[in-house]
Amino acid sequence: MLTYLQGNKMMNGIEKRTYLAWHGDGLVDLGLGSVVFLFGLGMQLDQVLIAPIFGCLAYPLWLIGKKWITEKRFGYVEFSDERKRKEKLGMVILLLLGSFTFLLGVMGYHAVVSGGAGAGFMKENGYLVLGIVFGLLSSSVGLVLGLSRLHVYTSLILASVALTHTMAWPHPYGIIFPGLVILVIGISLLGQFLWKYPVDKTGMSEAEE
Amino acid sequence: MKDDPLTLIAGIDRTIHAPARLSILACLAAVKTGDFTFLLNQTGLTRGNLSANLGKLEEAGYVSIKKEFVEKIPRTLIRLTAKGRKALTAYCNDMQFVIENLGG
Lengths: 209, 104
Known about the structure:
The structure holds 2 protein chains of 2 kinds. By secondary structure, chain A is an all-alpha fold.
């Protein structure tokens, strides 16, 4: 007789609402925004290593943030096994996509430096390719975590690089601008989260129970 | 008994029927486990109220409460037991039956 509860729309709704609230801290947005923004800034300043270094640090930083900001304020919660399986699959997809992005970057860099067959294409359309890759990254994270706002970021990134390309504006700005917007949204979400879930200064929540 | 919604109402599980306890059980049914702070935030109850209602649910065997220390910080983990899940399911089914049959 557990069928009603297991398939219950209300329970699914509560689970989804809880899960979205758990990710309402803006840490995902801050991570993604930082990578995109730093990538554009790195290109502009000819410091291409900034973003990849931060990219490697993003996941550990996210985990630390989750533990010291989210868990401390929102409380500890363990989601269902199904949700965990989805997240694990998502991590594998992200890892593959990250490796693909890295390979693409190496190939593009090699093509430009060696002046090979793809050099012209990469010089002309490199930022478009980069925009598509960042869009894929954003949408993948959005699909994995079930956060629809990340698909909006994808549209923003794609629109920005396409507009920059069409208007012949300096290419790094096409990456810097959406990165900055995502960062601002992340900061705003984090601010709202900190306001909504203050730290329990009394320390009574555990002791009292 | 199942044929008569009015008789069914009289037999509704009162431990679950209280709004505070129902919201606690609904929260716990949606996740695997959660701590006291999590339930505090999700249900909007006060500490004292949450604590008292958790006590009643534990007494009924609907939730299990485990205290542990994580890096010297105490944490109270609350989980819905199999008995609690079964009772909540039965309560939901009963209420659905009552609503459907009294709704006309």
